[in-house]
Amino acid sequence: MGRVVGIDLGTTFSLIAYLDAQTGSPKCIPGPYGSTLCPSVVSVDPDGKVVVGEPARAKLLTQPERTIYSVKRLMGRGVADVQDELKIFPFRIDPGSDNVIRVRLGDKSFTAPEISAYILRELKSWAEAYFKEPVDRAVITVPAYFNDAQRQATKDAGRLAGLEVLRLVNEPTAAALAYGLHKQKRGHVAVYDFGGGTFDISLLKLISTNEGDIYQVLATNGDTHLGGDDIDNALLDLARGEIRENFGVEFDHRGEAIQTLRKSLIRAKHELSSAEKTIVQYPLESKGMYIREITRAEFDELIRPIIARTMAPVKMALADAKLAPKEMDEVVLVGGSTRIPLVRKTVGDYFQRAPHCELDPDEVVALGAAVQADILETGVKTMLLLDVTPLSLGIETMGGVIAKIIPRNSTIPASAQELFTTGVENQTAIDVHVLQGERELAKDCRSLARFQLKTPPGPAGLARIEVKFLIDANGILQVAARDLRTSEQHTVEVQPSYGLSDTEIERMLEESIEYAEQDFAERQVIEARTEAETILAATDKALADPRSHEVSAAERKAIADSEAQLRAALAGSDYKLMRTRIDEINSATAHLAEVLMNGALQTAFEGKNLDDV
Amino acid sequence: MSVQRSQDAQAEGIPVTSCWNCRAAVTGAHFCAACGKVQPLPAGASYFAFFGLPQKLTIEPASLEGQFHMLSWKLHPDNFVRASEFERNLSLERSSQLNDAYRTLREPIARVEYLLEHLGVRKEGTTKQQAPPELLEEVFELNESLDELREARAAGGDVAALQGRLEAAQQNFQEDLEDVDAELATLGREWDAAVDFGGEEAKKTALLARMNEVLNRRAYIRNLVAGVQKELGS
Lengths: 613, 234
What we know:
The complex is a heterodimer. Chain A is of the alpha+beta class. Chain A has 14 helices and 27 strands. In chain A, the strands form 7 sheets. In chain A, strands 1, 2, 3, 4, 10 and 11 form a 6-stranded mixed beta sheet that branches. In chain A, strands 17-12-13-14-18 form a 5-stranded mixed beta sheet, with helices on both faces. Chain A has a 5-stranded antiparallel beta sheet with strand order 20-19-22-23-27, with no helix packed on it. Chain A starts with a strand and ends in a 9-residue tail after the last helix. Chain B contains 8 helices and 2 strands; from the N terminus they run αββααααααα. The N terminus of chain B is likely disordered. Chain B is elongated.
């Protein structure tokens, strides 16, 4: 078994973290570019090679038609759900992919879980390079307000990336956990999580028990389509309008030019978090240069309506938890968008207290996920998260009206039993339609699944089938049915309304596992080679040192032999053999290294015994 | 607590079964006393029995919450990630029952509704739609005011006065609701006393029927208030 990690699969950036056994603290793992942030961008080169992260972000400018960002917005959604997004985001959707969106990247198309799986696989490779061993299990975070289909899509992405998903944890809850460890606080905590594409508010109660700390979520609310992306788009609208008016230049919203403009506007946004004003410059070739100063005040006015949209969910969560804003003991800010001064001020004013932002708002969710992953993995429970389902679960009844069976903000796992019977004589099937949402009518709620309960023909009302609806600890629905007359378990074939079927997952999985193994092996070879070359260089240098003659000729020959063996292994591509040879050369040179080290130390600590040092 | 639970389990007629793992006798407890393995839920056991409580309507919120946290710590699926699929399912069953039970019992009204449903006095989710006789006059007046308000809105007439009348009516019903809740609390205490001192079955049955009537009245008034609020808000 390999290592276990926590992953924050974000709209703009994704991160991977682990619990350091030595320090007992969670840590984010940096990638090859030194940063712990992996841009959630995927690009497919013309030769079919998939590029993820920083290099993919660069390709937004060079091959935008082969590159996708903010794919999280498409997770678990149908084409009808994302019409608004399509006007703003440069997604190229395959026609006819109504309930499982397929995005075109060059000449191939991909589902959102497949694209997310590429991001997960990239992060997994970061961790594998870091640990030098495989990583196969993870806790992945999701926005608290994600519905069943969005959660299922995230779990599917994990499976496709070759990860066993131990648990989906809500992002604000993970953040609260990281903060709790940090601060050892008790009482009511509000977590305001404003990320790249999603907004969540979670209200928690932190309880100390004799056995450990319990983080109980009292209420959660949010908007899975509200984030820093919207701020970028507001800036983009402003700039596009002005460029159209003053220069007569119109942008194709899927072209390269707009990505360059977007990039400079995002930079301006970041600068305005600390500076009072900034200047955007954008060359329009022969038409001249768009130069625009943006002040903090103007920026605040532009984004005020977006920030205001976060407050309605905050109020609803407080009402559900039966708490007043001033009853919150702590307010925690999470997500990159909470760096914006207006966000901090708005939240601080509302709760009448200074919000916490000591931990890096980008890293805090992944850190919390790593802690939860370690608990699930080791079974050493130091704390317990009790989360809730964000949306009410209901079934459709007569006239398209919803009967709520599990109310929103119920602690999960949660369940409800319903008894179904036939309405007319000789009816052989009962249709069940499961939905999620707060509205009264089925047409206004989110369809989760449909299934049929089969029953032998008979008089109306004779059949008695009990269906158990259960929302598990991941917030995902499970359905089981039992025939009360025969006490037999009834098989239910649930057809998800959105998302991938099991067969589709299996097929994708077969393909991806092959790739994953190949990727891992390739990376291992590269790393073993790099390490071997370092060791060979050091060994050559040691043998050239005049003091090396303090070890016997036989020993020096053995070292030279093991060098030759390692060089031979490097000619091949078996990383395990390379590792064995590296170990051999390490033990062959141990004595020599000691001799050289002692010589060096003797020079440094004249007259001291080595043991005293 | 385990002693108390077994008494309550007996009171509810929960049969003695044997542990799926070590065959020791278990009576509805969460875990086998002998081997510590999580046990399946006994058929028909109530939410009260789950918490080791008698079927009474007075519950101390802080102690219920404490029990909830203690049981969550033990039963949550986090503890069973590496257990067999069978045990994982048992944990899922028990922990979802725990959450369902706590959600229901912590709310006084939901608690009464649940007791009546569990004892077969009340059907789940049913509320009588006809107005209770003692409210007929008020309901009639209210509906008239609502109609007038809608007409006045359509015709652009004087809405303010009608709104004032409706707000007053709403206030009245709100007070009725408080009376109803007080009545329910009194009946609850009588029920608890009957349970404690082994009251006659006939008396208990009468109390249950009375509570059911009060619940129906409560649901009816709540619907009225919600209707008025919706109309005033629109």
